[in-house]
Each structure stands twice: as structure tokens, then as C-alpha cells.
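A quick aside before the break. I want you to see a complete sequence-to-structure record at least once, exactly as it would be stored in a machine-readable document. Don't worry about memorizing anything.
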Amino acid sequence: MLHKKFSLAIIFAILFLSFIPLSQAQSVSGTVLDNKTRETIPFATVQIGENYGVVTNQEGDFEIKTAGFSPTDSLIFSFMGYERKAIAIKDFTQKEIYLEKNVQELDEVLVMTQQLTAMEVMQKVVENLDKNYDNSLTGFTVFNRNKFLNTPQQLLIEFKNKRKDFLDKKETEELNRIMDSLNEANKEKTSSYYESELVEIYFGKKDTAKARMIKATRLVNEEESTSMDNLKDTVLETLLKKMKSSNTFKVRTGIIGIADSIEANEMIVEEDEIDSTQTSIRSYRYNLSNFGFHQKKGMGFVTDLKKYNYTIDDISLFNGEVVYKISFKPDTGLFSGNGKMSGNMYVSADTFAVLMADYQFAEGKHGTNLNLKFLFGVAFKEKGKSGKIIFQKNDYGKYIPKYIKKENAFYIFMKRPFVFKENDDNKKDRMKIKFRVTIEMEQEETQEWLVVSNKPINETAFAAFEENEGVEVQKVKKYDPEIWKDYNILAPTEAIREYEY
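That is the input. The structure line, written in C-alpha cells, reads:
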């Protein structure tokens, strides 16, 4: 997909483990709220045991499968700054779960920890990174959901023909009218679609990983989609349906060759064509190294200490653990680095692990800004970036991601000439079609990863783990709760539930 080639944010990834389908799944669902304000609590953790669970979605809703557990096992609800709450599965009858704020006085908590400055805390965070975060010889089951919003600002295709008996003046004018109508119909029209995947991943030593795709879906109204991919297909199909030739074509944009021998009908996507996702292509999303704490991944605020100012805003308890709440912003001093992010993080006073972090571009900051409109007819700007990451300690004392969210906003511009040249020995009569494409677009992406379960593995288990080639993507035009009913996933938001053709 073109949007994936342009979007830098999609080079990120995460974890996986043993997955057990639940053919007759029992489940409980509800909403987690603040006991005092009655406001929902997004991204609260809902667990059964230490290594199995979900988080609430951005609207505070959750659903978790309970098959295989005892009625006396407890559902455990927790979130930073709130008292932990446990409810036996057999006693779970309410749809609303209220959590109470941790009201322990700051002075009482302060005596439980050393008086450290914010910079001293961050230095200890860096010193303990290798000790706290190690996911080698671990297996994970991960659910990934991506949302894409596309808003074309300009779509212009101008045709020029070289052979009058292929495209005469009238046909050329007709094609241009079709493209003008396409531009008017899609200009400033925002469309959305969702992709979801369930994957098992086993991690060996030295960042080695194996992935096995379990299920993939795409919720999309293709007839209304204004994604670059869909607009490109519309343009190509309009043109290629007129290209009736038994010969193949060479395709070029500027001086760059795209294909030397391709049939026109090979470039038209039929409605019933199978769409598949390959594990070998998609598994990069789940590579743990892509979630490291460094600037290139947007989380350099943890390690690039010279680039940021840190402030301890609060000290509280979370599940009996003393936690620092530290805010950060770019250092604007004369000899400071180029920090870009601002936000908050929560750090354990015992292990100095980052338990949770929220971040976004600081005021006046932006990401990659490439403007080569006049030289190569392309421009790209990363206008917005924000994210959240929640870690959870596993049974063997390491912190693994429980939930990751990344949001990015982009501006994309492309103005390129294209040439289709028929491979015909008779140079005089061969078809040669030239057209110029101008696309200007705003694009937003939201990526979420939920670690459903994790477990330790050994080298023998890693060696025995078999990858697959991928799975067929199930395309739907309307939300269907039956599709994911057997699996633990992020609960659908209202926008997903109401999405339909």
C-alpha cells in the first residue's frame, strides 16, 4: 500500500505468544470508571492472573474471555493513581466497575523512598534499562489494530496521447473530465478504515524472532475510500480498461523504470481477488527493538537526558509500589540537544523501570520535513506524533509492554509524470501514453498493540516454533461482533461499532 511506504510511523512493532482459540468462549465485559467523577478510565488493565488480560479502550470499555478459568479466579482492575480492585468471576454481574483514587498523603509516601532529583531518577532509569527490559526467550500473543484517516486536498491527472488511433482528442478530453470529477468528488473528503491482526511471536536470543499470523481483518468501504491506494487503483483502472493490446507495457515515472513487461489486465484489481497478509512482511510490526527508548522511535526522552528538562510532579503508590510521576519537555538551553517530545512518565522508585509514559510533539516541534517539490515533485511532513506505552512486570521480574499506542499525522505531496510504452517491434504504431499525476493529501494513523498473554520459553521451544506464510485478510464493510468473538482483543470503539457501508 502506498500509504505504508510514505508513513514512517509504520516501521514500529511488538510482541507475541502462545495463542489458544476459544471455540466456546465465555466472556465478561463492561466499562471502568472513576468512582468520584463517573468519567471513564481509558487503558486501565483488566487481568486474570499475572500474564493474561486486556486493557480498556479509549472509551473505557473492555471484554475479556474467561473460559478455562475457575469461577473463583479474580478479575483484577488497575490503573495508575487508582486503588487496585479484584472481583471473583462468579461475582461479576455489574457492567460498570468503579475505581477509587489512591488518596494516600504525599508526605506518607515520601518517607518510603529516597529524596532524589528528577535527573537522578532518570539516570537510574538509564542504568537499569538492560536489567528491566529483556524479552528474549519469551512468547507472546498480540492483537494489533490500525486506524487510517485520509483527506485528499488535490487530485489532478492530466493525459497526453501520442497515438491518435488509440486515444483521440475526444477520448483524451473524456479521460480528463473523468479525472476532474474524481478530484471534485474526493477533495476534502475524509474516509477511514481499520486493519486488525492477531499474531503469535516467539523471541529467541539476540533479537531473533519468529511470527505466526493467526487472523487478519480489514473494515473498509472501498467504494468510498480516499486512500492513496484506492485513488491510484481508480485512475489506473480508468486508463487501463481502454488499453486493448496483446503486448506488454513498460512503465516509467520520470527517469525511473517501474516495470519492463506487464500486461494491462494484471494491473487491474478485480473485486473478488484474494487479499492476503504475509507474516514475513508484517512481522516487522512486532519486532521488540522497534519499541526501544531512543530518539528515532519517538521515545528518546528516556535516554537522551541532555536534551530534556525533567520535573518530579508527584509521588504516589501503584499496586503497593512507590511511583514517581515525572514530566519532561525539551531543554532550550544554549548547549542542549534537539529534543522534540513533551509529556509524562511514571517510574518505579524500587526498580527504576518506566511503568507508563505519555508523549507528544512539544509545542513548535515536528518530525521529518522533506520538501523536494521542485526537484523531484515530492514533499512529506510529519505534522503530529503522540503515543502511550504501558509496561507490566512478568513472573520473572522483567517489564514487557502491555499496551502501546502511536498516533501520527502527515502531509503528503506527489507530482509525477508517468509513461506507459507498449512493447511492440513496430515503433511507429506502438502505444505510448503520457500522463501527469498530482496528489496532495492529509493522513492520520493510529496504531495500537495489546499484549494478550506472555510466557517464558526455552531455546528448544523457540527452535520448534513454526512460522506461516500469512493468512487471508477478511474484508468487511460493516462491524460484525462475531468475527472476533473467540479472541481477546481491544474492545471496539463506538466509531467501529457504527462503521458500515
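Two observations worth writing down. The CA atoms of residues 217 and 474 lie 5 Å apart. The mean pLDDT is 79. We'll return to this after the break.
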